[in-house]
Amino acid sequence: MEKQLSHINYQNPVINIVGLRKSFGDLHILRGVDLKLFEGENLVVLGRSGTGKSVLIKIVSGLLSADEGSVNVLGQEVGDLDEKALMSLRLRIGFSFQNSALYDSMTVRENLEFPLVRNKRSLTRTEIDREVHEVLDSVGLLQALNQMPSELSGGQRKRIGIARTLILRPDIMLYDEPTAGLDPITCTEINNLINEVQQIYKTSSIIITHDLTCAKEVGDRIVMLLDGKFERQGRFNDIFDSDDARVKAFYDYNFIA
Amino acid sequence: MISKKIDQKLIQLGDLHHFIMRFFKELFMPPYEFKEIINQCYEIGVKSLPLISLTGFITGIVFTNQSRPSLEDFGATAMLPSLIAIAIVRALAPLVTALIAAGKVGSNIGAELGSMKVTEQIDAMEVSGTNPFKFLVVSRVLATTVMIPILSCYTGFVGLMGSFLNVYQHESVSFISFFDQVFETVTFLDIFQAIIKAAFFGFTIGIVGCYQGYNSSKGTEGVGKAANAAVVASMFLIFIEEQLVVMIVQAIRG
Predict the structure, then answer these.
(1) Which of A256, B1, B144, B168 is most buried per CB count within 10 Å?
(2) B124: contact with A, CB 8 A cutoff
(3) Is A132 part of a structural domain of the chain?
(4) Could you say which of A98, A105, A115 has the minimum Cβ distance to residue B129?
(5) Is residue B150 a contact partner of residue B49, using CB atoms and an 8 Å limit?
């Protein structure tokens, strides 16, 4: 069953990308990408490995700079921001990394506290504890509070990674391959979590993946990155109702291979 | 081929210069990561104590043992405490401490930051509104710059204790007369130049380790290379600095 779209505000794009180009040496990764993410929407970006999906969200968060084009996030042009303004904007963007990127030397509690104590310095110890418990509870891992990242499974690490981004209550979530390397059951749990985050925290999200099950379960809209451009976009069934060999190969690989 | 390698080295030097300039820029800008600096001082200082103690103590004993025959030829074994004091305070304590720290601390910093880089932990810090350069680099470089001089003083003391035990065993010199002679020989300039030199060594170990780790790439292979390069480059620079300081101090002494 396809997701309802009534929660999306199509009058308010929170991310607006126009003519984005990015190259690494002679390798032209993004060749004029146009994209809008609307308020409350879960947008899935599909594409093969190495097509520039992760590069796209790294440009959105200011980790990489664009060669050409406009990247407007929450009304601000990312390329024009100074360091301080970029830091402020980043607090409104949650970034869930492919390998979770938990700080190895810190416990789960310290991982979650890290962004909080640095960005909300007026919080008391009790308030910090409450925030940590609340966000950990929302990803269903309260029992992991004092564990080290090395003691967690892949799925648990993903959940803690998402919790760490949620603790700053971002308006936008960027998920980089949220189900990569996980078993099918854990994948479903992560997909459900992404949908819960959308509902509970009212976030707008870009989900980078090549997992079609994930795309189907979490995507309100899907765009497909082919040869450095978004060639197709729409609901899941619209995307794959195509004779394009590149699209068919992608579908067949996921559901037949 | 050779010109390409020279080009790469020059580009790397330029990057290192930029990295050092960024360190000084970030050093004076708030917010200040006091907690992390203290944490790193503990990691670098306290956790290096066992190794430094052992090395300093053995250096004192060995150096005394090796110096004795030469002085015996001239009937000057009474000068042993003075000779040892000058050698340990001026050169051995800072140098031995720095070399040990380059191996232990420098490689640790290179590997830790390299691993954080390739597992995107540094990116994660950046997107969560924290300046990773300030948190990771400034704190570690400050900690090494502060702790290596302190560790050098400690190495000097332990080295002199080792030397005293050896002298006491062979020449039956008392503790008070040994250290009387030590303090009569060592001047303020000796101690001052040793501390300044150790601070430079500490800065070098910290900045080179951080630079190698912070700029590592190519996955786990890159982490190993970063740790290795941190040690090799630090040791090379430490010897150059040692030579420069000796030349400057000799010029001051006239």
Answers:
(1) B144
(2) yes
(3) no
(4) A115
(5) no
